[in-house]
Structures are given as structure tokens and as C-alpha cells.
């Protein structure tokens, strides 16, 4: 799939998301558990703000000197015998990768999770030439087996599916006969995929960070799938967004630490693998041939603009896990593989305002996203800037602004909208309420709730209460 | 053999242009960073305190820890392998194993017990992979061990196969106590020093923290998704 997912319009997608109660439960559950783990992982450091400032200064320095570091990276990869291809567009990248696949006469590709390959629609491009492409990350594998269901979360792509749905998919497509216990499901995927690793001709990966000074790059997983993808096939192709690099190993470790703490609250995940070039001459495992494909696809247009800081992103998804709107509407509502606050900033920049002009309005501008961002991207400011650009360009805001603002109870212009808005407000604020007080508000509310509790939106709307009162309802 | 680089100039010129300047021709000096929080983590911990930090974190990542001495290593390792159900066992070919007195266990004791043992030797080619894929236990040695995250660091070479730590059902890492450092910061510095000394960094560096796992189905933790189901670290106190 490309960056865009689905053909429904924004309000239909949102409507679907809001009505999907399992998905909403899963999203809020994930936000709560990952959010709490993230908080523990950053608080135990004691000086998380200092870490964030360091993360920010590293990422800003790299962006300011991006041409130099990419030159250094590619020189060092070539020195180690690897090949580097710079692709301005998805077409250029796909053509090059297809060329490598054809030259190798490859029939089977195993892949570890990579957002940038989703962005350029690589799988479809390879399937077109008769190549079988197998996703190996468990979540991605589930989605792929289910006829390419789109991902809904950057880190937990199959979050919107429950175990019963996964069992049904496996039963129907893979002849699976066991229970919906995640352990048994994962065991089945393990057995299927083990054979694929051993028989694949090419391994394709994304890139969490490249290291310019040594021509290395790092892959971060808990499953270990990236390690098998990069050690068993004879040819390896790694695809990276052009901004995903650091000067040296010293900055690499800082950003890897921040990525995993922010993403899932882990000090480090089970596997961080740093690879440099193809295997050494006498090595038995590891690829004989290594290709790095560096993708622009609209990123360079963001450089030098007021949106440059969005390229600091390290794809941890902490902003998704903190966002009250994401909690409410789920990942698919964004219509882009990049969802949540980062998706609402990035998707219009990469995919254009025509496609994504509603996304900057899928935000309360509460600032919770900016506050959790490990590299200090001012996400809610950028969302606000998007709105300014859109209004200047179009002369008015897209209609969804009104709807969404009302949906969060931020206005009462029309009775109908007010009704909808106040209906949604209690569930939108749900993450942060205990009893009837908001004890841990998002963003700017936090400063307030740190010292006092903010009254939560009433579970019972006043007009409902008033109506019920006459019928002898709750009179409290 | 040197690799190829394609389409670079147009691509980088475009970046420079968007940044509003010409291409950078002189090497960029990495700035003196204003912040350095990573250096402070566990910086005052003693060696023994680091061991305690490591052990405590192992509990959180489903990893068993055994502490022994060089003299007790053979017994401890044999016991750990037995606990995992015995062979087949695959190890790196590494002279440290014999220095630490494990040759007899590997080459005599285990074969005599009928335990299938294989040493990863590059001259055996793909047979190494075939054995590792069927193996019950993989055993490797940690070069640096990160206390904070309970991570072993492995450096690949021709006789230290990458997949020894991934293909077998269970995994055992030998951890010399002297390899324990506070966190990833120190290991990264070592790798950088290697490069600055004019040497190549290894083609594959693995930072491994416990067994393979996933939470992709309803965020429930599942252990052993693609790699090992179980992991044990054996800390050797006098090494």
C-alpha cells in the first residue's frame, strides 16, 4: 500500500473509527499501558528533559548538514563494498529495487517492518513482477495475511484486531487449527516464517538510524525478525528515509535509547542490530550483496521551511499514545500510514493538502504530543501552522474543523453539533479521568492538573439530566 | 571491492538548495554538544553494583542469571544446557572457550553423552546454518555487557556466526564480569574508538536483551516469536 490508505472521505473514516468499539477499547488500552510504561521509563532517568534537549540538538544538527552526512554515509558504505542508490521519487526507488530483484532472478523476498517501504508502495511493485513478498513482523504478517489490511499504529500495526479476528484470519488463510491464544498464534507464525527465511532470495529492511561516520545502520526489534531477514538471504536491500541518520555511534546510542523508551517504555528492546556493508569475505551468514536505497519522496521540500523540525522525527509513536483524538478515532481515520499527531503534520507535507487538508484539524491543539516528543518537535504548533496555510490557500477552513472542534465540546454554535460534541466529550477525556476529576490532563492541562484536579465533563449531559429529572431519573 | 553510488549529486544538490546554501565541501565538525545526559547514568556505580543492576533487569526481561567462577564454568554451563533440555548445541569457534576450560565439555563429555555438538566453523559453509536451525541451544560470548538494560553485545566474524544467537530454540550467553559496563554509551564509544583507530567495525554487532518476544496481538507478551524462547546469562566472576 502507498502512504494513502482507503478511499473513503475523512468524515466517513472518522465515523467508522468512532463506531468500532473494539478498536477504540484497544487503542485506549494501548495508550494507557504503553503510556504508563513510557512514563516510567523516562522518569526513572531523572533528567528526561536533558535527554530530550540532546535528542533535539543531534537531530537539528544532522538536518542542517544533511547533504554532508549523506555523502559521508554513502562513501563509507561503498568502501565496505555496499551499493547506494539515491531515489528522489518512489518510482525511482521501486525501479532500482526491481532491477536488483530481476538481476538476482529472485522469487521470494522476506521483509522486516518498514514504514518507508509502505510509503513507496514497494510490496505491490515487487508483486507486479511476480515476486512473493513476505512481511515477517508478527503484526505486519497478520495484516498481510488478512488481504493487506492497513496498519493502524506505527509501532503496533495490528492493534485494531482482536485475538479472535487473528484466529479467524489464520484459520481461513493458513489452515490454522488451534485456539486464539496469542502464544499459539505466534507459534504458528513462527513455523510458517522460519521456512520463508531459509528459502528467501532477498531480505528487505527499513532503517531506524544510519551512522554516517562508519557507513553502518541500526535495526530495532523485539522479535528478532530483522536479524533473520539480514542473515539468511544472499542479497539485502535496506530502504531509508533520507533524514534517518546520525553522525557517529555515540549519537546512535542516544537516539536508540530514546526511541525504545518512548515507543514502548523499554530501556532497550530484545534486539538492536548494527550492520555495516555486506558480510566479510569468509563469513557464512549475512548477505553477500548489500544495497542501501535513500528516499527523498517530498522530504527535501520540507527542508528550509517552517516545517523542517518534523524531519527530526524518530518514529517512536509516543505522540499517538498521548493524543486524545487518536484515542478517539483510531489510526485508520487518518487515511495515511502515518497516523496520530505526527501523521497529521507529516501526511499533508508528503502527500499534499488536497489529500490531507482535514488532518491538521484532527487535533485539539492540546499539546500533549509536543510534550512527549523525545526530540522536541513542536507538533501542535506545526498543526496550527498547517491550519494557517490551509486557510490562506483556500480562504476558509475545511468543514471538518467545525465538526471536530464541536466533537470535542469546544464550542456550541449549533444545537445539533453541541449535542454531538458533548456526547463525545466524556469518552474523549476518558483516558485521564479517575472518578469525576481529571487528574492527569494532556498538554497545557497538565500544568493545571499537576496541582489540582480539573472537573471532568459530566457523563450525563445537562439536557439529558434535565429531561430525565422529570421522569424521576438521577437527581444528584 | 568498492560498491557503487548512484544519483548522488543531483539528490544532495537539491537538499543543499532547499537548505538555502551551496553543497558543503569541507568536512562538518561534529559540534560540542550542549547536553550529555547519557554519561551520568550509573556513572558512580561500582562493579558489584553494576552486577546487581544487571541481575535486577534480567528478571524483568524473562532472562535467567547464573553466577559462577572460571573453575565452576563447566559445571554451570552443562547444567544450564541440561535445564534447557540438552542438545543439539551450537557454539561459536572461539579460542576463549578453550582458555576458559570448556574444550573437554564440548569435545568429549557432550559427545560421550550422545549430545550433538557443533562448532560454527566458516570452512563448513552452509552446514553451520543447517545445524543452528535444528539446534536446541546456541552459546556465544558477550564482548560488552550493558548493566542498565541487561544487554549482551556480540561482534561477528567468520567463526562467530550471527545466527548462533537467533536460530536455536534457546540461548546462553557467557558474560565475563569484566565486560560489564553501565550502559550502551560505553559500548558505542568502544565501537567508535575501533573505527578511529583505523579498523573496521564488525559487519554485524548484536545488542541482545533476553529472548525474542512480541506484543503484537492485543499487546499480550509472547516469548519466542522468531528467535529463542528462553535466555540465560552466565556471569563469570573472575574473568
In the CATH hierarchy, the architecture of chain B is 3-Layer(aba) Sandwich
The number of distinct helices of chain B, counting runs of at least 4 residues, comes to: 7
Could you say how many structural domains of chain B there are in total? Answer: 1
CATH topology of chain B: Rossmann fold
In total, how many beta strands of chain B?
Answer: 13
Quaternary state of the chains: heterodimer
How far apart lie the N and C ends of chain B? 39 Å
* Arrangement of strands in the largest sheet of chain A: 1-10-7-4-2-3
Biggest sheet strand line-up of chain B: 2-13-8-5-3-4
Largest sheet of chain A: 6 strands, parallel
Separate helix tally of chain A: 23
Rg calc of chain A: 23 Å
Unreliable stretches of chain B (pLDDT < 50, length at least 5) are none
Q: Whole-number average pLDDT of chain B?
A: 96
Q: How would you sum up this structure in a few lines?
A:
The complex is a heterodimer of chains A (476) and B (239). By secondary structure, chain A is an alpha/beta fold. In chain A, 51% of the residues lie in helices and 11% in strands.
